Amino acid sequence: MPDPKLPDPRLPRPAPAASVPATTGSLTPLLDRVDSPDDLKLLSRDQLPELTREVRDEIVRVCSQGGLHLASSLGATDLVVALHYVLNSPRDRILFDVGHQAYAHKILTGRRRQMPTIKKEGGLSGFTKVSESPHDAITVGHASTSLANALGMALARDAQGQDHKVVAVIGDGSLTGGMALAALNTIGDMNRKMLIVLNDNEMSISENVGAMNKFMRGLQVQKWFQEGEGAGKKAVEAVSKPLANFMSRAKSSTRHFFDPASVNPFAAMGLRYVGPVDGHNVQELVWLLERLLDLDGPTILHVVTRKGKGLSYAEADPIYWHGPAKFDPETGEFKPSDAYSWSAAFGDAVTELAAHDPRTFVITPAMREGSGLVGYSKAHPHRYLDVGIAEEVAVTTAAGMALQGLRPIVAIYSSFLQRAYDQVLHDVAIENLNVTFAIDRAGIVGADGATHNGVFDLSFLRSIPGLHIGLPRDAAELRAMLKYAQEHPGPFAVRYPRGNTERVPEGTWPDIAWGAWERLKAGDDVVILAGGKALDYALKAAAGLDGVGVVNARFVKPLDEKMLRELAGTARALVTVEDNTVVGGFGSAVLETLNALKLNVPVRVLGIPDEFQEHATVESVHARAGIDAQAIRTVLAELGVDVPLGV
Q1: Which of these, 555, 449, 486, 495, lies nearest to 342 by C-alpha position?
Q2: Tens digits of per-residue pLDDT, 226-245?
């Protein structure tokens, strides 16, 4: 007997809609007719495979300009087309976890002509954004948030007596996050009508890790699963041979898909599970979605996709093609960059450190490539750990290592460290543990916008007692700070920006006195205090101006009180510049210290204003925020410095 809770494959399928004539003379004749989900529904099901090809071609054309999320969007195209064909967006809510796989969604919801502006100033966001379109259910950029959002929407729908659909699309990478797993547990308990589409491509940015990923992979090779497929296919062939072939391709084992005796974590949480199914058969996805969306309670549809689908070179190397540089869409050829990134500088430094210190152990939350750790992971595989998209786990695992005598380094983006604030405070700092935080993408990051700008770390880390904070000006100082942190007690944070720096020779390990600032330009009239990225602007602003000094304020905690006291006694005014919010950042630290020392000197604080910064180039955001060289020179002029006009 068929399970009444699952769609019955014996049900007749509705007749396909009449085909819409394609536009002639165009490379995308079907897509040219689609400017909304309503337009999409005018196409027949037989036309959907061709439409998905055209959407992929459009995504490749747009992404060939560089810096965009290519492989993940290509992998999700069939799924997105099927969802919009069946659902009625924006009334029905479609939530994309992270949002970087949603380019097809943007194209199908009236934003195709704006796609060339994506991640550019004044243009479309690289992720879904509520203020951008009514079709974007959530504003997102970080992983693992879609399920809790979807639960909230389902609860709100039911509380208000509404009946629209709620669908969350989450990748298997995002499912490694504790927030997603906790939400699944609550979703099963609340038992509200909603659909969760698990887009399983075995990838986040790097390869996925962890027990859940092993479960997904192991499922498809279990003996009962293989045997069940054969038995199921024979039973279903008598009813529908095409459906039987589809189920075989997707490794389905009749209609239960799971042997009841097998271990299914989703069922254990109270969720109905269907799958895995082929995520690149758009017509069968439509057929399944039409039935699953009418079921009561929460359902998980496990869809298997291939990252980079439809583009041979992206399928072959989905890690590189996750967010490639500018390339030729026909050949995939691109010009390799010889620039040396801050991430590469960090990776080289820790690889050398670990070679000389067996206590060094590097942990990353799913950012091996982004944090420059590919080389390290190969050189020291037994002292490397990728915990998946679980920043809290990364930090507390480091605490456990430190308690047993290791010197762990947590390599993490600034905006992702926000998620682990409690662990830094509670698990590391209270006991003054020897953990180093290598904070990449600190400051404005540019095209990824508000969700990824790392402009809060100085403020929230400064509030933690005993935590030391350094801002290297170049790769040599980065090495010096990392080495110092590994040799001294307590927690350290070393913060560096997105972008490039000068390469230094292997074995370069300068000595550094932690907490000591450095005078880079003499001048006692007005002195500019800046560290990290902001220091470059300070030096440019002060160039050629007599009496204007520049200090490399490379330590935010502790500040160099000795030098600050000297400057307060000789300078007419101080100007602090930082690539961090002005609220509680470096400028605030200077003011607090001057107050504690009972010193009175005028201070102008320049930093990121107390508002979220939208995507644009780093230089453009810095100019808008008032921390670039020209903005500093304007402030110097206001303070009475003779600044030549037009400079």
Answers
A1: 495
A2: 344 444 444 445 445 554 45
Q: Sheet containing 526-530: give its strands across.
A: 518-521, 548-552, 526-530, 573-581, 603-608
Amino acid letter for position 85: Y
Tell me how far apart the alpha carbons of residues 138 and 389 are, in angstroms, rounded to a whole number. 19
Token couple for 509 = 């390990």
Is residue 468 within 8 A of residue 492, CB to CB? The reply is: yes
Q: Which residues contact 431 (CB under 8 A, 6 or more apart)?
A: 403
What is residue 22's predicted lDDT score, i.e. its pLDDT? 52
Q: Which residues contact 627 (CB under 8 A, 6 or more apart)?
A: 534, 537, 577, 578, 579, 606, 607, 608
% of the chain with per-residue pLDDT over 70: 86
Residues 425, 427, 431, 433, CA torsion sign: negative
C-alpha closest to that of 462 among 324, 555, 369, 536: 555
**181: nearest Cα among 298, 266, 277, 296:** 266
Q: Other CB atoms closer than 10 Å to residue 192's CB: what's the count?
A: 18
Choose among 21, 71, 72: nearest CA to 50: 21
- The per-residue pLDDT for 257 is 39
Give the count of beta carbons closer than 10 Å to the beta carbon of residue 463: 12
Provide DSSP, 287-344: HHHHHHTTSSSEEEEEEE--TTTT-HHHHH-TTGGGS--SB-TTT--B------BHHH
Give the catalytic positions in this structure. 307, 391, 419
Helix or strand or coil: residue 420?
Answer: helix
Under a CB-based contact definition with an 8 Å cutoff, are residues 427 and 396 in contact?
yes
Neighbours of 227 (CB within 10 A): 12
Residue type, 630: Q
Q: CA–CA separation, 491 vs 468, rounded Å?
A: 6
Q: What is the pLDDT of residues 176-215, one digit of tens each?
A: 888 899 999 999 999 999 999 999 886 444 454 444 444 4
What is the C-alpha to C-alpha distance for residues 556 and 429, in angstroms, rounded to an integer?
17
Chain mean position to CA 233: 40
Could you tell me the CA-to-CA distances from 562 to 10, 188, 340, 567 in Å, in that order? 82, 59, 35, 9
In terms of C-beta density within 10 A (0-12 exposed, 13-18 middle, 19 or more buried), how is residue 532 classed? Answer: buried
Q: Which residues contact residue 452 at a Cβ distance below 8 angstroms, ignoring those fewer than 6 apart? A: 141, 413, 415, 441, 445
